[in-house]
Design brief:
binds manganese (II) ion, Arginase, Chain A, alpha/beta, about 350 residues
């Protein structure tokens, strides 16, 4: 893998205010990692704001120190040298989000119980059509970058944005495994009638993307009966419920051992789908559906690093459901999101052989 040309860029100084993500000076062309922001949240049902996630992460990102102490002993203390670039949010996505949110609003307000109401039925059909357009747009964007041999990372938006990305990555790497970190199983057949709801993303992935061979879920702690049945019986799914992780550690098992077990369930090529609410809610207080419990920052970073060092290859990822609080000067959600995003970038690079 080739390093990007960083010229006079000083990694010891403050991030460049007029730079790209993490204050970096790179163009899209010279970057090995291309991040695609997808500010879309048509079906968000509880708290909104995740469409502002990509900008919140971008704005908080120059604050990070770029030196990765975690990977220093593994030959990659300066993952940024390989180039990380975030695209501008596409006008098309913004338009779909605006239209979709308006169309979906009265359906969400009724919790999807629209009965025989013709107006709402036609709105639902329209909303499902908008989801298809969004998926297709994200798919095409990701496919384009994959053809250029970029590592693709999608930044949501709500969790529905993962579909097109997984589709593109699985097309290039059939037999793909997904490491899914989330408070929610996201295995509902549909939610509130929406075919591509944030709450059914992994159900859609398993049912509709044949290139996905395995789904390994971690930190799941909010799910319904139907999801529990699917998570515990489907041959492509291995679910590590948050309560099980807690019990095993409480009884003295090391998280390192559990991590090895989790990783051993995955095939060689892995896509990481990281819902920020997989973390403890203190690390993502403004996300749409926070749930008590979850992974600490350390547990999450340990898992990602272990995956990168396992010999498996991280071929793509997404980070979703980050939402800013909207309070003046409060960058906390974006700050934690930016740190997780940097870890995902560096882990992908390391797993693909990048070395300083
Ligand atoms: Mn979630």
């Amino acid at each position: 893998m080739k390093k990007a040309d960083f010229g006079k860029f000083d990694p010891n100084g403050a991030g460049t205010a007029d730079g790209n993500i993490f204050g970096l000076p790179f163009t899209e062309q010279e970057s090995n990692v291309v991040l695609i922001p997808v500010p879309f949240e048509m079906t968000t049902s509880y708290g909104r704001g995740t469409a502002k996630g990509p900008m919140a992460i971008f704005d908080a990102s120059p604050q990070l120190d770029l030196f990765d102490g975690d990977l220093a002993e593994h030959g990659l203390p300066r993952p940024w040298e390989f180039g990380i670039f975030m695209e501008q949010p596409a006008a098309r996505i913004k338009a779909l989000n605006k239209e979709g949110s308006q169309v979906a609003k009265p359906i969400v307000a009724k919790g999807g119980r629209i009965g025989s109401n013709k107006t709402l039925q036609s709105k639902l059909a329209k909303a499902n059509k908008i989801s298809h357009s969004l998926n297709e747009f994200v798919f095409t964007r990701c496919q384009k970058q994959l053809q250029r041999n970029k590592i693709v990372g999608v930044v949501g938006g709500d969790h529905s944005v993962s579909f097109g990305a997984v589709q593109a990555v699985a097309q290039k790497y059939p037999g793909l495994g997904i490491l899914h970190i989330d408070a929610h199983a996201d295995l509902r057949t549909a939610y509130e009638g929406f075919e591509h709801s944030h709450a059914s993303i992994m159900n859609n992935v398993i049912r509709k993307i044949p290139g996905v061979a395995k789904l390994v879920q971690v930190a799941i702690r909010d799910f319904c009966d139907e999801e529990y049945q699917l998570a515990t019986t489907h041959k492509k799914i291995a679910c590590y419920f948050d309560s099980q992780l807690r019990d095993r550690q409480m009884k003295g098992e090391s998280f390192a051992k559990i991590t090895q077990e989790i990783i051993s369930q995955l095939p060689k090529k892995v896509y990481v789908s990281f819902d920020i609410d997989g973390l403890e809610p203190s690390l993502c207080p403004s996300t749409g559906t926070p749930v008590a419990g979850g992974l600490s920052f350390h547990h999450a970073c340990f898992l990602i690093k272990a995956l990168a060092l396992s010999g498996k290859i991280i071929v793509g990822f997404d980070l979703n459901e980050v939402a800013p609080s909207g309070r003046q000067g409060d960058e906390w959600d974006g700050n934690v999101g930016a740190r997780i995003l940097y870890k995902l970038c560096s882990a992908s690079l390391l797993s693909q052989g990048a070395q300083n």
